[in-house]
């Protein structure tokens, strides 16, 4: 589901969950979100608690942790961009068309459309609409539908679930083959890669932090010198070693004042620089 909103403040998030989720589908057991301030605000946390919802925030700057939602977001953006290309200013008026297209399209992983898995039938689209038959036995039609819901729909969902598991396992195998696994120990000093600031020819790191807890699936709890904690995936961390290649920089206002910020100077030879000289400063 998707809805255009004026802002993404905590109150707006709660209103969306109540009117679009709870009202139509009941109270969810668990909600997975990123670490946006609207999802972690005190009023939002109280909302989760009052409805007995388990809230699971993902690790910082780790889109893969909520991969299904991120993929759907990209699909929705691409579909919406194509549909409203001639009227971009009013993109919010085309959300329903985009959702209709996505819900009626066959999914590559399951081999079925989302509508087929949810309702047991395909959605009626403008291109496939047919008028009602002249004589319809309503009672018989209801019996057939109930019978299908009790038997056929469950089989259909199981089939889609099995196909989806196979697809996920294949994707995971491909991903794992490319990923470099990081193993840190308790007490290790590490730097965290910054995804906020981008620099040409260099990578920016924040820290140092201390590993205080080893989590699941490559996640680590890190602590700065002021006792602040964060959960970060291992591919955003590296061992902190003082060396000539780690050049301290002025702390940004977006960072904790107790943290140092580093730019790793890559050993690259640029045209015009004397041989052996390193590029120590790049204007922002």
UniProtKB/TrEMBL annotation:
<feature type="domain" description="Integrase catalytic">
    <location>
        <begin position="1"/>
        <end position="122"/>
    </location>
</feature>
<dbReference type="InterPro" id="IPR001584">
    <property type="entry name" value="Integrase_cat-core"/>
</dbReference>
<dbReference type="InterPro" id="IPR036397">
    <property type="entry name" value="RNaseH_sf"/>
</dbReference>
<protein>
    <submittedName>
        <fullName>Pol polyprotein</fullName>
    </submittedName>
</protein>
<dbReference type="InterPro" id="IPR050951">
    <property type="entry name" value="Retrovirus_Pol_polyprotein"/>
</dbReference>
<dbReference type="GO" id="GO:0003676">
    <property type="term" value="F:nucleic acid binding"/>
</dbReference>
<dbReference type="GO" id="GO:0005634">
    <property type="term" value="C:nucleus"/>
</dbReference>
<dbReference type="GO" id="GO:0015074">
    <property type="term" value="P:DNA integration"/>
</dbReference>
<dbReference type="InterPro" id="IPR012337">
    <property type="entry name" value="RNaseH-like_sf"/>
</dbReference>
């Amino acid at each position: 589901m998707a809805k255009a909103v004026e802002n993404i403040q905590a109150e707006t998030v709660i209103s969306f969950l109540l009117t679009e989720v709870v009202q139509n589908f009941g109270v969810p057991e668990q909600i997975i979100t990123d670490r946006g301030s609207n999802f972690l605000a005190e009023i939002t946390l109280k909302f989760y608690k009052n409805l007995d919802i388990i809230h699971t925030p993902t690790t910082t700057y780790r889109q893969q942790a909520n991969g299904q939602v991120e993929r759907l977001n990209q699909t929705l953006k691409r579909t919406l961009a194509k549909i409203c290309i001639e009227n971009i200013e009013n993109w919010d008026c085309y959300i329903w068309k985009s959702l209709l297209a996505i819900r009626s399209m066959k999914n590559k992983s399951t081999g079925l459309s989302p509508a087929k898995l949810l309702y047991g039938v395909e959605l009626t689209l403008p291109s496939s609409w047919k008028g009602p038959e002249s004589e319809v036995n309503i009672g018989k039609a209801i019996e057939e539908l109930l019978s299908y819901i009790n038997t056929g729909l469950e089989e259909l969902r199981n089939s889609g679930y099995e196909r989806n598991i196979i697809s996920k396992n294949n994707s995971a195998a491909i991903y794992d083959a490319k990923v470099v696994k990081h193993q840190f120990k308790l007490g290790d000093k590490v730097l965290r890669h910054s995804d906020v600031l981008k620099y040409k020819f260099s990578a920016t790191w924040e820290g140092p932090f201390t590993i205080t807890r080893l989590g699941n699936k490559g996640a680590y709890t890190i602590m700065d010198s002021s006792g602040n904690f964060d959960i970060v995936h291992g591919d955003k961390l590296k061992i902190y070693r003082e060396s000539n290649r780690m050049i301290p920089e002025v702390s940004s206002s977006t960072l904790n004042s107790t943290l140092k910020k580093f730019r790793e100077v890559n050993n690259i030879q640029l045209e015009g620089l004397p041989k052996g000289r390193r590029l120590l400063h790049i204007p922002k």
